Amino acid sequence: MTVTAVTSPAHSTPADLALGFLTGGVVGASLTAFICGCVVEKASLIVMGLVLPAVYGLVFFLATLPRRAREAAVVPRTALAVIEGLEAAGGETSDVPVRFDLTVAPDDGPAYRAEIRQDIHLAELPDYRPRGIVVVEYPPDRPWKVRIVKRPTPEWEERAAVARVDSAPGPPMKSESPAGRAGGLLTLFGLLLGVAAVPALFRADLFPSREGESGAPPRPSVSSSSTTTVVSATGTVTLGPGRSMLDEGDLRKALESLAQGGDDRLALTVVVRDRLLTVAFSPSGVNAAGFDPRSLPYDRLPGLVDEAGSDVGSPQSWQMTADRVTGSLRLRVVVTGDGGATTLEADGQGKVLRRSGG
To answer: To which H or E segment does residue 17 belong?
Structure first.
């Protein structure tokens, strides 16, 4: 029998490369949209992450339906083949995936080599051995898509029992040609592009602007020693390094700097830490239990902090809060150290009313 070479499967076409790129983009965009939508609680992104792959799958199914119909209409050819080699992979079911190296000998054409993977039942595996003759089927336009016929007709079964097939030279054609480097790189590029496209298109939802909004007041000037910021009805003052609100006169100056331009501005809450002062002012036109922040007993604060910190070992942090929630001005000083925490409550003149912790 004369043996000639058979053309191998074609490499990836431009359509295959474009399909890989598009698939990677859809996968990256849908996953990113779904995850980002769950994080920012944006229903539109979650829906996009779920609908996009479904729509892509439907379009792909409809676009490839004519080709698959043509392939299904092709009548497969039957031929004899000799097993050049086989290798079984482990499996958890009764069907074991086996890689076959075959020489296929069609009745009306040259013999050729083909490498396939097919599941074989574990009990039938001893029936397949090197140099054994089997009956195979393949599409005439795709001879590398070979499939072993497990239950051939009596006629082909009789031919396989007495036939002798010579080995064909050359490397075997594979039923599934591996994707080239270009295809893999394009798919990866599409995946990365899809991941990047979602934050770029929906940046307004994912990264809402905190600055430059309409009606927002301009940023105040910043000095080397302290920073004063007034936003809406809240004001803050941050002292520079090496300074403390317990230093003589610093707390008074900080409060007066926030009260500038509004002598009758009342405060709802004043919170003082070592270098930070925060004042929540009462909005204009709102009746609330406010107080003049400049009326606080500045001179008593260092003594209250020292008294509260006497029972906590080495003091690590302190905080004073002033408000009129109970109707009268109250000061609460909390000092935390390695020995625990102590809380002092004092009136508007700085007289200690009760003590806890320590």
So the answer is: helix 14-40
